[in-house]
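dumping this here before i forget
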Amino acid sequence: DEYTINFTKQLGEKGAPLNIYNNPPVPPNSFWRWPYWDVQDVSFHTSNRLGPNAYLKTRTYYNTFENGLNAYDDITYTTQSLPGRFFSPYDDHAAGTSLEFGSTRFKADTIKIALYLRTDVHEEQQTSRPTNPNPALRSTEPVQKQSENTWSLAAENTYRVNDRLDWVAGISYDDYTVTRAQDYNAARGLFEYPRGGANAFNWQTALLWRGSATTRYHFSISDRARFPTFFELYSTRFGTATPNPDLGAERATNVELGWERTGPKLTRAGGAVFYSDVQDLIQTVVLPDTTTQSQNVGNGSFYGVEAFLEARPSDRLIAGGNFTHIHRRITDALQPNLRPTGVPDNKLVLYATWRPNRGLAVTPSVEATDDRWSDMTTNPVQAFPYVETGAHTLLNFDVTYRLKRGLEVAAGFKNLLDENYELAWGYPEVGRTMYAKFRIAF
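structure:
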């Protein structure tokens, strides 16, 4: 039996970059900073043997997330007096528990049953124009609350057909209910959006075949739903978005066929081909009034291939790489120009690790991707508000040395060639970066 208590706390602050192509910014209220961004997690884990053929694992947790956002008048980040400027604190917390029971009482079967329960609460408030010298123009909204309950019940069985073949089958029933959905504006005061919710039945099955001691194959099919988040349902993004309380769940059917082989000198190779058919795909779209909204935009199909190779030509050298190709297509009769954003069609990673002695590791690596579609936020909105961006080749270099007594130090470069590239239109990624770090394990 094992019992563990875990505590994590992170205190932070951050800023928001400005689009380098929009001057003045679009939207004009873009001078944002978060003076605090704090996360805390407390959890209790148990793992118990229930006789020789069964076990029970549990996790109970309580998470908090607090942040504050300041929207300033201009690039000096000093005053908050113009219309649309504000200070907005968030106070979120979540509590939940999960249980997993497993049994191998029947020789050919491994049975697992899982239960998941969670409650999420979001609280927000806004003080408008807090530095305006006219008290009549300053205002503070009442606290607005949003909350939901989520639960899931799942079962899975692995049946050993013979020494080489396993059949895995699983089902789940998921449910979420919005219990509060408050918002505020001057015209309506404190009001509530329609409370929604949904449930879904999900399933998956897979065949796992050990062709030999060094070769494995797998074939899987699943059909499952993804519920929309609070952010997608209700967030106004501080006036830049229109809520969509009627947003429905996505549903995807996924098929994958893959293999993996271990060869001489610890050579590993493998790959997979995959296909996903998505119904009622959720994506952000631009409305005629220039605000954005999360919508079920239609249907999509994603398919591709991935492959990896890793070899150890000597005791001191490991080299390898992986490649992914994915093609995404969205079909929506009402939005023929819609493009899937944020993911490149092709991505390649190559790496090598040389260990001249037991403690030292030298690792150069290369990462290359091609273009991806990105939204263009301009004023006025363009008829085709998308652009391809993000193609890049990055060279990275890391040196790590492991000392005695659990101490490890590392230094290196990211983007050593100072590549200038953008993953999203108007927001360049960091250039050449040097880092140093250490870790102690005890």
